[in-house]
Amino acid sequence: MKNLLKYEFRKTLSVKLALLGLTAAAEIAFLAALFLNKENLLAISIFLLTMLALGGVMVAGLATILTLHRDMNTKQSYMLFMTPNSCYRILGAKVLENALSLLLCGGCFFALGTLDITLLFARAGSLKELWEAIGSMLRTINSELTLDVPNMLSFTIGLLASWFSAVTAACLADVISSALLNGKKGNGIIAFLIFLALSFLVSWLQQTLTSSVTSIQPRFLLQALIALVLSGGMYFATARIMETSLSV
Amino acid sequence: MLESIDLTKKYGTKTAVENVSLRLTPGHIYAMLGPNGSGKTTWMKMAAGLVKPTSGQILFDGTPVGIESRKKIAYMSTEPYFYTWMTVRDVGKYYGDFFEDYSPEQYGRLLAEMELTEDLKTSTLSSGMMAKLKIAVTLARDAHVYMLDEPFNGIDLLARDAIRGCILSRFSPDRILLLSSHLVEEMEAIADQAVFIKAGRLAETADLEDLRTREGVSMADRYRTIFGHEEATK
């Protein structure tokens, strides 16, 4: 498993390095703008960092799906499937790599965001007032909706878990397309419909099973747990199909 | 022993391999022969566990091929399959990470014989160099079965001699060597058994010594007899 995981990280290394480079450049621009009082640059760098935080997590998931697709549909698949590893292990390494990448990516952006907001408030006190004004506005909608670290952390965890379940749903749909529908007309469209149906199911179960929970933090965390449990189920279904039906 | 029993593989309406029952025993070098699309590669891929049969079985030492057999069967595909970011050194490390029977020393020797250096990137290799690399890394394993699909494809005459030597150096009485090729005369100098596959079906298996002594024909002659009409009509 260790070796499989090592090569999964290697396969997505270029994407991660590009993301890291862009984030570093945006962060340097942010810090320079902050300390040199360049308002335009500050606005641009904050926009870039926000986009990178949202896009980075998304890109990490997409990289996993693309790698799996390539590992099933090109000759490179032999490198993986001729090794003495079961499909449960092969897919397990991919899913684990994705989970760790999302955690790492999400964790880094969360830490960077917290640090940058703190720096921003320290340099410009008026921004803190603006932040508090947004917070109090949100509280009028829901008294628990505050812009504090625990709330933001539970929201981030919920978001990452939901995205993780979307990635595993995409993996299942792709494997169904490659293993069961291979060569059949419209298999791409069918796979996409399967992905949509699975994503809808996950979202519906998250909403239905947490509708009675009124507090925000437990609800986010419970939704994350549901997404992770469903991801586990989709992982086993995907690996089972690969083990019994996938020809590369 | 590597054995297929009523092995069939269908891709949609097309049948690639049909009811092939074949038994390969240790101590022999098999030449699998047949025109393009006859089913040789599909049979090998099923034996390597890469392709799932539609029906029938493929067994290695009495057990269906799978994780355990992959530890003992070294398969070389005819197509290049290394990750594009890899160097020749990375390819060796990869095999070392996954196959217990891989020998880095043997890999180094084979690379030297094939005139390849470890710093070369696989994405920049010519087809001939790629073919040599595939052979070097496959033969660097101390496997029970070697299955080489078209090992002489894209390789010039002089390099072919070196490769033939490398392949033969891996032969021993407890091993099975299975080679497929279009170069029938080339195979005649290596193999002692021939497996003729025609349109997905097993046409014949023959002991080459028997063919020569009893019937006075070569493997190439038998190839012409079996496939002559088919080739002529192409």
Tell me what you see in this structure.
With 248 residues, chain A is an all-alpha fold. Chain A has one domain (2-246). Chain A has nine helices and no strands. Chain B is of the alpha/beta class and 234 residues long. Chain B has a single domain, classed as 3-Layer(aba) Sandwich (Rossmann fold), CATH 3.40.50.300. Helix content of chain B is 37%, strand content 26%. Chain B contains nine helices and ten strands. Chain B has a six-stranded mixed β-sheet, with helices on both faces. The relative contact order of chain B is 0.18. Chains A and B meet through α1 and α4 of A and α2 and α3 of B.
List the keywords:
heterodimer; A: 248 residues; mainly alpha; 0% strand; globular; B: 234 residues; alpha/beta; Rossmann fold; six-stranded mixed sheet; four-stranded antiparallel sheet; 9 helices; 26% strand
Helix content of chain B: 25-40%
Tell me the greatest interface.
Answer: A-B, 24 and 24 residues
Overall geometry of chain A? globular
Supply the number of structural domains of chain A.
1
Number of strands of chain B: 10
Number of helical segments with 4 or more residues of chain A: 9
Percent strand of chain A equals under 5%
| Biggest sheet layout of chain A | none
- How are the strands of the biggest sheet of chain B laid out side by side? 6-7-8-3-9-10
At the fourth CATH level, what is the homologous superfamily of chain B?
P-loop containing nucleotide triphosphate hydrolases
Structural class of chain B: alpha/beta
> What is the N-to-C succession of helices and strands of chain A?
HHHHHHHHH
Number of helices of chain B: 9
Radius of gyration of chain B: 17 Å
Low-confidence stretches of chain A: none
